[in-house]
Structures are given as C-alpha cells and as structure tokens.
Amino acid sequence: MTTVVSKVLPALYSALDMVIFVRQPCGLFQAVSDLPAWSQFWLKLAQPSQSQEQNYALTEAFSYLSYFMPDAEEHWKQSALAPLRSGPWIEIDELHQELVLEAGAVWVEDKPVLFIQRMGSEYYQEVERLQLMRNGLLVREELELEVQRRTLKIKQREEEIAIKLVSLTSFRDEETGAHVRRIGLYAAAMAKALNWSQERIDDIRVAAPMHDIGKIGVPDRILLKAGKLTEAEFSIMKRHTEIGAKMLEHSHIPTLDMAADIALCHHERWDGSGYPMGLAGEDIPITARITTIVDVYDALVHERVYKLALSEEETIALMLEQRGKHFDPYLLDIFLGLLPVMRRIRYQVQEIDDLIVRAD
Fold first, then answer.
1. Total structural domains within the chain
2. What would the pLDDT profile of 179-216 be if each residue is shown by its tens digit?
3. How far apart are alpha carbons 204 and 186 in whole angstroms?
4. In a 3-state reduction of DSSP, which class is residue 117?
5. What are the pLDDT digits (tens) for 9-61?
6. Distance CA 283, CA 281 (A)
7. Cα separation, 142 vs 212, whole angstroms
8. Residue 312: which CATH number?
9. How far is CA 143 from CA 11, 129, 137, 197, in A?
C-alpha cells in the first residue's frame, strides 16, 4: 500500500498542478512534493540562504499569503480536516505572464499542511461565466427598471384618467379635484402601513378617488338639493353606489375591479347599518372600509357650500364616536396613527389648486 501511495501521490499533485508544504516549528515551510516548473522562480526568492534544501519563507515570495496566514494558523489550531482556501490571486512571473494561484490550509496526520495550486484555464472560464452572469443580471435589472418606469407611467395615466372621470361629477356637485386626489393619497398611505404590495398600493391610489363616480347617474334635482332629502329622494341618491359599480365592473382590469368594489361598498358600515346591501364587518371589502374612513375625514375638515370646515380635533372626536359602528376599529386605529401623514397630504393638495365648480 505504501508503494502504491508513493507512486500515486506525485502523479496526483502533478495533475492538480500544486505544491505541498508542511509548516515547520521555526515558521518556514518544507516542500514535501515535487516542485512544478511554475513555482521555482518564486521559491528561489523564498528560500533563506542559511536554510536547508526545500525550506521556504513563503510570505516573502507571495505577499498575498501574509493576509491568509492568520486564518490558516487559526484553522490549524482547530485540527480541521476540511481545507480552508485563500481564494485566487494573480502573480506576474519572470516572463511577465499572469499566473493565477490559490492556497489552502489543512490538517493532515497531526501536521499543518499548506498547498499552493496553479489555477488553469478553468479559472478563466469561471471568470468568464461569472462575467456573463453579471452582464445578464445587469441587463435583467435594466429591463426590470424599464418595466417599473413604464408601469409607473401607466399608473400615472390611469390616475389621471380616473381624476378626469371623477371630474365629470364635479360639474354637478360640490366635490373638487383636490378632494378626490387626496382620497387616493390617503388610501395609499394606509395601504402602505398595512404592508400591501406596491402594485396594490398603486391600485387603491387610483381606485379610491372613483368612489362617487356613480353620482353622474343621480338627477340634478336630488344631487344639488340644498335642503334635506326626502326618504324617496335619499333612496334614489343611494343608488349612486350601484350605478358606480356597474360603470366599473367586469373590466378584468385590477384597478377598475377594485374601484367597482369601493364604489359599491363605501357607504356600508362596520355594524351593518349602511347601504346598499347592509354588509357588516369583514364582509365589506377592505378597500371600501379604508375609503370610507379617509372620505369622511377629508369631507369633515374641509369647507363645502353646505357646511363649514371642522377642526381636526373635532373631526377626530366625531370619528372616534363611530369606532366599531361606522368604521372598522382596527383600520381607524391605523388611520389615527398616520395623522401626521394625512395632515401633510392635506397641506400639499390644497383646494386653491383646483377650480371648485358649484351650481348657481
């Protein structure tokens, strides 16, 4: 067996293009394998003049090893059988050619062993493969960014279309472009706080402003009436929820499908006393529950032709009275935690930026 090993090992070292050293107590490294031709130039530099044959100060020849040796020493202290690799580095030989080397530390038969291996063409193939992968990732990242840019443009167009559609009702009642735009921003802020995906956040920002689009189907004599509506008139007014849903449903466009749910259910109440279907609790789509909260908040804190604006303090007090009645208590708590954000939206999207259209 010893004879076989003695014949096989040199051939194996030669095939792997490596040289094997054992670290001596004095800190030098004794070569215990044949020296490949590529190694002899550096090993001459690493052999102290007073040293015996085959003992080398490797860090003097390979400066990169000085960074690796502390880790190698720690590895040897642990008597680790698995090799610790240095990672490849490049040397320039006497012919000014690149030589890619890699070192490894391993514990063999109670001895600290260091090997240095020349990396062949497979190293350059791996570098090329990694570069191709990197280039592919860069291309994919650029494509993803382009998709994001185009998606953003589409969402911006959808939002603008939604605002334009809703503005049709602004010619017939007291609502303003600023109001519907704020509704979308409020709703998006709540969706973000609920950790929705960016796609759903964008959807509700566009969909929530369309909550009252069905008012376009309500007669002027009811929509513009200054006084209190009769029971019959209120029954007709309530139909704006169903009209809006029918205008928006069955589009197979996620944003419009969401808008249809909101239009239909934004007057439902948590306790089941709302309309048009008397839904209660979580049977009401969460998108509608969110829109209900932000719509009431914005309506109360802003002046309209039929009412004065309330202070935010008064508004919050009224909304808290409706916690668990009109409003989903959990979502109302989320909204209240976002008041600084909501306030900033109010200040940034002002009524003065829009034409308020009122009936004569």
1. 2
2. 888 999 999 999 999 999 988 998 999 899 999 889 88
3. 10
4. strand
5. 555 666 678 889 999 988 899 888 888 888 888 788 777 655 556 788 888 88
6. 5
7. 39
8. 1.10.3210.10
9. 50, 21, 10, 20
